[in-house]
C-alpha cells in the first residue's frame, strides 16, 4: 500500500507500515546518498518502535484473551 493510500485510509497502523516500507526501500536503494543514511536509519527505528507501541497498546486494550470472571458477591456481616 502506498503512503498516500494509507494516509487516506485513516488507519494509523497502515500508515506507519507504509512509511516503514518506504524508508526501508529508500535505504536499500543504491542511489540514496550516504549523507541521508543515518537520518533514514534513525527514522526507520522510530517508526518500528511506533508500530510496536501501537500493537502493544491495542493488545492491552483488547485484553490478554482471558475470559473475564464475574465479580464476587459481597456479604454484609456487620
What's a quick, concise take on this entry?
With 78 residues, the protein is an all-alpha fold. 68% of the residues lie in helices and 0% in strands.
- Overall outline: elongated
> Which sheet architecture does the biggest sheet show?
none
Task: For the record, give the distance between the C-alpha atoms at the N and C termini, rounded to a whole number.
Answer: 64 Å
Task: Estimate nothing, just give the exact number of structural domains.
Answer: 1
For the residues shown, what is the average pLDDT? 88
> Into which percentage range does the β-strand content fall?
under 5%
- Order of SSEs, N→C? HHH
Proportion in helices: 55-70%
Q: How would you classify the helix and strand content by structural class?
A: mainly alpha
Number of strand segments: 0
Please count the helical segments: 3
Any idea what the radius of gyration is?
A: 21 Å
Oligomer: single chain
**Unreliable residue stretches:** none
Please tell me about this protein's structure.
The chain is mainly alpha-helical and 78 residues long. The chain is 68% helix and 0% strand. The chain has one domain. The longest helix is centred in the middle third of the chain and has 29 residues. It is elongated and about 75 Å long. The mean pLDDT is 88.
List the main descriptive attributes of the protein structure presented here.
78 residues, mainly alpha, 3 helices, 0% strand, elongated
List the helices and strands and how they pair.
Elements: H1 3-9, H2 12-28, H3 34-62
Helix pairs in contact: 1-2, 2-3
